[in-house]
Amino acid sequence: MSRPLREWPGAAVVWLAMRPRRPPRLDRVPRTAAFRKHHAAAAAWVDGQFRLIESALPWLNRAGVAVEDGCWLSRDVHGWLVSHSDRWHISCTRVVTAAYGASGDAATQIRELAVAAGAAGWACHGDRDPVARLAELVLDPFQQHGTGDATAGWRPAGGAEPPPGWRPPAPPLAARPPLSLTIHALRTRPALPGLALDFSPLLYGLQRHVPPAATPSCRPVELSDEDTITLVRRASATAGHVFVMSIRITYHERSR
After folding, report:
1. Does residue 16 sit in helix, strand or coil?
2. Predicted pLDDT at 177
3. Calpha distance 28→30 (Å, rounded)
4. 44 vs 37, 51, 56, 168, CA distance in Å?
């Protein structure tokens, strides 16, 4: 601080208030004990969810898994302008997507998939019949257009373990941590010969958002070699239809 500011305490206070917050260094986050604990717990919980759902559906034939795990740096901006006092926010999210080939009656399998997901805690909570609604959101467009998808939230169900650090929603606050399950169903044979597979916008949205190399605002933690579309194409080579399940969980957050 310069001498004039030392001589004017009021000016020093203003200078400190206006000084911009230094952005956190993302490269340090994965080295912290808190991150390692949260990351390991989230990865184990997501893997357990897939095992729980798959164990109830022996007709699923897994083609592979894509993992996208990374940390992002953002600013808590209030209004149109960035204030020097606006806080920096670190958010680490893990997305695990599994693609499956299947044959048989697709409508029956979509309903069975919704039931298995419901037993693990996933459904359209808030609806009169959350599990039936989940199946309906996937099945109706699938039967009409050959592709359907829906996103479900999680609530405790049966013996399913809650995600690490989970707390129920308390309006107006949502449940924590942020997590979701997205289910896609895709008919592998186009309606007309020569047409390409009709990937839904949500399925394209599962393409990677984490860059392979670190940037000041994003740091990859774990990236699989294959992406979701590659897995879907592999599963569709021998199956009558393809199911894709994607679980997203934000497991580490910090503001400063």
Report:
1. helix
2. 79
3. 6
4. 11, 11, 19, 20
- Residue-wise pLDDT for 187-237, tens only, equals 886 543 444 455 555 555 555 556 667 888 888 999 999 888 889 889 888
Name the residue with higher pLDDT: 8 or 175.
175
The Cα 80–Cα 110 span in angstroms is 45
Helices and strands (H, E) in the chain, number of each type: 7, 7
Residue of 155, 152, 159 whose CA lies nearest to 123: 152
234: enclosing H helix or E strand = helix 228-236
pTM, rounded to two decimals: 0.82
- The residue ranges of every structural domain in the chain are 25-255
Token representation of residue 172: 């107006």
pLDDT in tens, 74-89: 876 555 554 555 778 8
> For residue 53, what are its two tokens?
């759902």
Torsion, Cα of 48, 52, 53, 55 (10° steps): 130
Q: Whole-angstrom Cα distance, residue 162 to residue 37?
A: 16
* Nearest Cα residue to 152 out of 120, 129, 173, 124: 124
83 CB-near residues (< 8 Å, 6+ apart)? 77
Q: Which of 66, 77, 72, 146 is nearest to 106 (CA)?
A: 146
Among 55-69, 135-149, 176-190, the least confident range = 176-190
Instruction: Indicate the helix (H) or strand (E) that contains 46.
Output: helix 33-55
